[in-house]
Design brief:
Length: 151
């Protein structure tokens, strides 16, 4: 019986999970990068989502795998098209902060039907990206709960 927690304790530890303890390192690209280079970057960095920043390093947009695929179907020259043309842009970006509860962030991913969100610091200049929260991070947290609860 030792080490097993009650349902109440389980719920409490779930509510105590924070974004900052499960986030990943963000991968960012400049808004004038070409779509072609962004595709190469997504493969070389091995991520599913790229965050787009301006010259002041403020969050401007998000690029998903399907955003890049969609733009490749057309006849446009991917070497000439900057990513800011095709990205999902502010203010329509779902994001979270370090101190957010992981369960609230997870709910946001599901409700918005997205794979990941930037973790940001809100400044007067705009949103500064500090991390990346993905469905994989949520899955890891789910496993960590099981580990601390002696299943
Ligand atoms: P995919 O498009 O590869 O299935 P997503 O489900 O994450 O990947 O993205 C779906 C759409 O939502 C894309 O157009 C993408 O630009 C957009 N998107 C992804 N993440 C976010 C986010 N954090 N906030 C707003 N829009 C997003």
């Amino acid at each position: 019986y030792a080490g097993k927690k009650t349902t109440a304790a389980f719920t409490e530890s779930m509510l105590n999970l924070k974004v900052k303890d499960f986030q990943s390192i963000p991968v960012v690209v400049p808004d004038d990068m070409t779509v072609y280079d962004a595709i190469i970057h997504m493969f070389s960095e091995d991520v599913g989502t790229l965050f787009v920043i301006d010259k002041d390093e403020i969050l401007q947009g998000v690029l998903s795998r399907k955003d890049l695929l969609r733009s490749s179907i057309g006849t446009q020259d991917l070497n000439k098209m900057p990513v800011h043309i095709i990205m999902t842009r502010m203010p329509n970006i779902a994001y979270c902060v370090n101190s957010d509860s992981l369960i609230v962030a997870a709910k946001k991913l599901i409700e918005r039907e997205i794979d990941s969100m930037p973790v940001v610091e809100e400044t007067e200049r705009g949103l500064v990206i500090t991390g990346r929260l993905t469905k994989t991070n949520i899955t890891r947290a789910f496993i960590s709960l099981a580990e601390t609860h002696d299943l």
